[in-house]
Amino acid sequence: MNIWHPSKRFIKRIPNVLHRTLSDGIENFPKFDPKYIRNFSIIAHVDHGKSTLADRLIEIGGVKSSLPQQLDNLQVERERGITVKAQCASLRYSYKGSEYLLNLIDTPGHADFTHEVGRSLSLSDGAILLVDATQGVQAQTVSNFYTAFENDLCVLGALNKIDMPNANVRTCKMEMSKIFDLVASQITEISAKTGENVEKLLPQVIEVVPPPQGNPDAELVAILHDCQYLSSPGSVLLTVFIKEGTINSKDSICLLSSGKTFPVREMGVFQPEPLPTQTLSSGQLGYLILKVKDVGDVVIGDTICMPGSTVEPVKTIPKPKPSIFSGVFPDEDTDFRSMKESLEKLVQSDTSVSMETDSNQNLGKGWNLGFLGTLHREVFEQRLAQEFGTSIIMTKPSITYRALLDNGKIVEFNSAKDMPDSYHVVKWEEPVVETTLIVPGDYLASVISHCMSCRGIQKENSTVGEGRFLLKFEIPLIETVDDFYSSIKKISSGYATCDFEDAGFWETDLTKVDVLVNGDKVDGLSMIVRSDEIREVSMKTVKNIAKLMPRELYKIIIQCVIGVKVQARAEVKPYRKDVTKDLYGGDKTRAMKLLARQREGKKKMREKATVKIPRAVFRTL
User: Fold this and answer.
1) For the chain, which terminus, N or C, has the lower number of CB atoms within 10 Å?
2) Are 314 and 54 in contact (CB under 8 A)?
3) Other C-beta atoms within 10 Å of 183: how many?
4) What is the pLDDT of residues 351-365, one digit of tens each?
């Protein structure tokens, strides 16, 4: 059985907790009254210094580490330099003669992980809004601020990287004041890298952020925030938030969705290393280690209570609607059963991924997974390989279209095989996203031109500071799937940023294009194409397939068709034996007969042979 294997650094951290006694950490960690607890998050655009600021705050809390980005535990996070999963740390901080417990949550900054940000903010009572003084307010800064605003959180402004030569403190403060209605004089100027003024933030958190609402003596109500499978078979580490009541180290708890009871093997807090404690009480973030046999018993967002309790389930953030879909199938060297188990565990810890069974004539049984974006999809595939050692084939991403049928029904579909017959369709619709971009004035015209070329309709153009503009476009989602983000970065020399929000559907004209290989339809390569792009897409597809197909003893003909009408065609030339090499003179009709016999044999071979499509074709396309 495949067991989740964390990164090398996390291996040192987690499995060891199973071999410690509770007395190792209990004596050094007191019980806190909720009025001395503060739960807060750090929110910012990607690369604005969230993880570095978290490191400095953890150091102020008395934890020293020689490694940077202490809260970035996953291997993919350290390789890509981004935060994928929200991580927490409990800091002890003395202020005005009292000791406080500050629960810090570091959040992702990329647009594809906004659901993770929302889940973290739902457990917080306040947030530090961090802005890079060299870049100013960016698109994801705006998005994360409004997420915090919707959760009714107290927001503290902080301006990072003031030690940089190109820092523009005055302009950035004006932007934050204008866009977020923050008082410029109350925005803290810091350098997370050097630690300058960082110590000023924690007193502000204590003064401004309210304590959590809850009663430690009430009946237990906790929220299951995250889960991680440990190297010991069946052992699961649950990250939990105690909303009401108290859990003791020798208690048994009940997971409300399954109704099953589990004894607590260990419990504690993150500092950010797991530190065992005797209790977890109202307002605290911590962990529980359970022995769970069935993967389905652990559900992120579930309510935890005492056995026999009659508490109502806590309402949590609903699962987001996926924006792109990909078929996932086992590679030739991957066992189907172990892949299923690995997928279930990873999907279980990433609640924004949807999973449905799927099948393909060429690739066999698999699953159709839904993601929030292309980066989310890439990170998921990378985590599957790194944490579980599972190699997969992932098909080209698709999106959800809608069809209004002649009987009045509306059908949604995200693959060509589920596409309804065009004879019964009154109207096709494609999803649209509202794209928010913040662009320097020097690149404004180029960015607008690119958005227009992606069938975008401009909705807003306003200034957000000196020489910077905020643009809003409605753009079809399919235009943003492949390389829209990278194109915007390239056009603007990396200075422009963008964020996406669902904006409904547009009417469009769609056609199903099938791929034939020697006359046989290949289901996994069928495409949903806009009518005005049929010729271009078909030509590109057959050429790419022809490059990837291995040569055989017979000709391979690749076609893109709509019904019976061929839109594009390519050939893979066969291997050809020189049947005339033994002829020495004589009438040329002898050579013609041998060549004709060879052609006839290859024709029969092509008619009887079944072309095996290499998995590299599906993986590459």
Assistant:
1) N
2) no
3) 10
4) 888 888 888 777 788
In this structure, the number of other CB atoms found within 10 A of the CB of residue 599 comes to 11
Distance CA 166, CA 31 (A): 46
Nearest-angstrom CA–CA distance, 214 and 506: 46
Q: Are 74 and 108 in contact (CB under 8 A)?
A: no
CA 95 to centroid of chain Cα atoms = 38
- Determine the Cα–Cα distance for residues 1 and 18; give it in Å rounded to an integer: 20
Neighbours of 29 (CB within 10 A): 18
CA atoms within 13 Å, Cβ hemisphere of 216: 14
Q: Angle at CA 458, nearest 5°, toward 457 and 459? A: 115
Cα maximum dimension of the chain: 111
Please list, residue by residue across 144-153, b when 16 or more beta carbons sit within 10 angstroms of its beta carbon and e when fewer do: bbebbeebeb
The answer to whether the beta carbons of residues 148 and 129 sit under 8 Å apart is yes
Q: What percent of the chain has pLDDT over 70?
A: 91
Alpha-carbon gap, residue 431 to 402, rounded angstroms: 8
Q: Which helix (H) or strand (E) holds 365?
A: strand 364-371
What three-state secondary structure class fits 20? coil
Q: Rounded distance, CA 52 to CA 106, Å? A: 10
Measured at the alpha carbon of residue 558, what is the angle toward residues 553 and 561, in degrees to the nearest 5? 155
Measured in degrees and rounded to the nearest 5, phi and psi for residue 151 equal: -85, 5
- Could you give the 3-state DSSP secondary structure of residue 155? strand
Tokens 């690739």 belong to which residue? 363
pLDDT tens digits, residue range 109-159?
A: 777 888 888 888 988 999 999 999 998 888 888 888 988 988 899 999 999
Which has the closest alpha carbon to 203: 215, 191, 186?
A: 186
Q: Is 389 left (phi over 0), alpha (psi -120 to 50) or beta?
A: left
CA distance 122 to 226: 13
Residue type (1 letter), 181: D
